[in-house]
Amino acid sequence: MRTLNIGRDFSCDPAGRYRTDGDASGEAFREDFLRKEIEQLKKGEKLKIILDDCVEAYGSSFLTEGFAGMVKYGYISSNSLLKKLDITYADEDFKFYAEKIQKYILDAKYNSQKYEKV
Amino acid sequence: MKEKCNVLNNKIETEIASPTTTNIVSTINSEKLQTDDVILKLVYYTNKGTECPCPIQSDISTSITLFIPILSALLGVIVGSTINYLHWKLTRKKDNLSKVSQSLLNLIIELEEISMNYWLTSPNRESENTVIKNEIFIKSKQLQVQKHINRLEKTKKDKSFKKLKVLSDDIFELITGEDFESNKRRASKHKVQQIASKCSEIKSILIIDYINV
Q1: Which of B111, B141, B148, B176 to mutate to test binding with chain A, by most A CBs within 10 Å of its CB?
Q2: Nearest-CA residue of chain B relative to A19?
Q3: Cα distance from B169 to chain A (closest Cα, Å)?
């Protein structure tokens, strides 16, 4: 199983939606980290996402763009992405964000938008 | 006492074929029995020799006589303690619920104020630090709100809690969604109205269903 620790591998302060909002945006996370990690997974392999190591909190804008964007831009279907992700947290309060991520992924419409790099 | 009793039993078995009052009295007199033994013998004859007249019987009845009030007292203590414990637990639960609800109410008031200020002003160079501070506050307050909701979920799972949960989810989407933490964010009076409306609903539920219970 591969692991993506958002706080350690990406940023302790994930914030914003697009790259124009800062280096730790949802777009940057998706394009530079999540998408690459998902593409490198072998058949049946899962990607463990650690939500709460070093990160204090998330905004909806980051989570939507970072995770649901994978479906919205047609990189992967909702069900396939959910099957590949294993979202973990040590702090029980982060369950809220884990549930939100799953909801955003499920609600996203596959390939409904074309990704244009800003 | 037991030996004396056994001797007496044997005498009764061998000498008194059919125990009558005269026989019993003479047997009792001849043995010079103590009052306790006399009672035991009378019990024995009354029950036609089916009861053991040995002092053990006397010990058991004494024990039972003592045991019943002790047991009653013990049961009384157990029942009393249980009721007291349950009452204390219920009071503590209500107290906790009220404290968590009050704390959540304060959080919602703070979150409402910060997020209204945040969404009423578009970002500019002068307010950059204030905006960053507000974004940090909003995210941390929002997580605190979720912590409180999780605590409430453990003590109260009813219709009003479900409504509270939905509203807190809506608040999260409203305040931290769309252009939150974006440089392109624009002040939105409509969003502020929505935030105020949702926060008012939460406050009402907390005051009516949780704090003033």
Answers
A1: B176
A2: B182
A3: 9
Shortest distance, CA B67 to any CA of chain A (angstroms): 52
Residue with tokens 């105020």: B196
Residue with tokens 């109410």: B105
**B14 backbone dihedrals φ, ψ, rounded to 5°:** -85, -40
CB A55 within 8 A of CB A20: no
Please give the full DSSP string across B84-153, using - where no structure is assigned. Answer: HHHHHHHHHHHHHHHHHHHHHHHHHHHHHHHHHHHHHS---STTHHHHHHHHHHHHHHHHHHHHHHHHHH
Please, which residues bridge with residue A85 across strands?
A47
| Terminal-residue alpha carbon distance, chain B | 68
**B32-67 in b/e burial notation, b at 16+ Cβ within 10 A?**
ebeeebeebbeebbeeeeeeebbbeebeeeeeeeee
A24: closest chain B residue by CA: B181
Give the pLDDT band (50/70/90) at residue B34.
Answer: low
Token reading at B200: 């008012």
Whether residues A21 and B176 touch (CB distance < 8 A) is answered with no
Number of Cβ pairs < 8 A linking chain A and chain B? 58
Q: Is the model's pLDDT at B67 over the cut of 60?
A: yes
Chain B contact for A20 (CB, 8 A cutoff):
yes
- pLDDT of residue A112 exceeding 80: yes
Q: Residue B140's Cα: distance from chain center in Å?
A: 33
Identify whether the C-beta of residue B164 lies closer than 8 Å to the C-beta of residue B149.
yes
Q: What is the pLDDT of residues B82-133, one digit of tens each?
A: 999 999 988 888 888 889 999 999 999 999 999 999 999 998 888 889 999 9
What tokens appear for B142 in the block?
């929002």
Write out residues 68-107 of A within 8 Å (CB-CB) of B.
92-93, 95-96, 100
Count of Cβ atoms closer than 10 Å to residue A28 Cβ: 22
